[in-house]
Amino acid sequence: MELRTRILPRMLNSEVEAYLKENDIIIVPVGTVEMHGGMPLDSETVISEAYALKMAEACNGLVLTGLPYFYAGATTSGRGTVQVSIRQGIDYLSAIAHSLLRQGFKRQIYISFHGPAHMTCSPMVRDFFDETGVPILYMDLTMQMLKNAKDLFKSMDSFHAITVGAYQIMNRLEDVPLTTGYYHQNPQTCKPFDDIFGLAYQSAAIGYCFGTPEDHMSTTAIPDKETRKRLADEGQELIETLVNRMDLPHIAEQMRSLETYNHANEEKYPWMPSAFRKNFRK
């Protein structure tokens, strides 16, 4: 079917009902609102939403936007940062996942470009499987970039281009300010603690916050609209290339196959949490 939009909040209920007769994929970008150098506070939300839109186009899915308020992390020293605890984020996201399942979205893909998001998303998808027997997926976009785009991601300039490109994809390019005052080469004030920060995955090792706004982050100079447009085009191409390399049709099919595999295991091992819950309800 031809869709007027793939963004669920912009659809009519009848359009969603028609889609669910043919498919069951929804991509959920999990964002944050936090200080981000010379970029808007919702940068990492917009990056995730832009990726989600391109991913949905690749696998005929829908996108649930409007989820910007989750655990920010070390940026809480900035007064523009909105901080939600990890536990609160897990519970909120779990409620959304259960709602989407009841609506008919069995293949749910949660994504984020925000480093600490794994602490919210990964526990949720694992608990959700134990509760329902339905395997939903979390994809860390930072990890995907390091895995599938090392040849493209040459420096932080590529990251800034992706940020601007995401705003262009979401038709919000004008929200990226023209500024030259946020570029610097100073090390982060917390750099002396890198040895203990690296003892676990990303931001999950130990608690801390940035000592100065410059820690998050140095931002490439965008002196004029021409520079912004150049970065936007470069970043959009990077996003589209990475999404193509992800092979979303394969991922979607693997999710369906994994569900069949899991059902077989539930028959063999009725003490699995998901199987036990199903049998108990009977």
Model description:
With 282 residues, the protein is α/β, with parallel strands linked by helices. Helix content is 48%, strand content 6%. The chain is built from ten helices and four strands, in the order H-E-H-E-H-E-H-E-H-H-H-H-H-H. Strands 2-1-3-4 form a four-stranded parallel β-sheet, with helices on both faces. Strand 1, helix 2 and strand 2 form a beta-alpha-beta unit. Helix 2 crosses helix 8, helix 4 packs across helix 10 and helix 6 packs across helix 8. The radius of gyration is 20 Å and the shape is globular.
Summarize the structure.
This protein is of the alpha/beta class. 48% of the residues lie in helices and 6% in strands.
Key features?
282 residues; alpha/beta; four-stranded parallel beta sheet; 4 strands; 6% strand
Distance between the termini: 38 Å
Biggest sheet features: 4 strands, parallel
Order of helices and strands: HEHEHEHEHHHHHH
The DSSP helix count reads 10
Main sheet: which strands, in order across?
2-1-3-4
Question: Unreliable stretches, pLDDT < 50, 5 or more residues?
Answer: none
Provide the β-strand percentage band: 5-15%
- The chain-level structural class is alpha/beta
Estimate the helix proportion, in percent: 40-55%
What is the number of beta strands? 4
Mean pLDDT: 95
Give the C-alpha Rg.
20 Å
Overall shape: it is globular
Which SSEs are present, and which pair or pack?
Elements: H1 13-20, E1 25-29, H2 43-59, E2 62-63, H3 86-103, E3 107-112, H4 118-132, E4 137-140, H5 141-148, H6 156-169, H7 194-197, H8 225-246, H9 248-268, H10 273-281
Parallel strand pairs: 1-2, 1-3, 3-4
Helix pairs in contact: 2-6, 2-8, 3-4, 4-10, 6-8
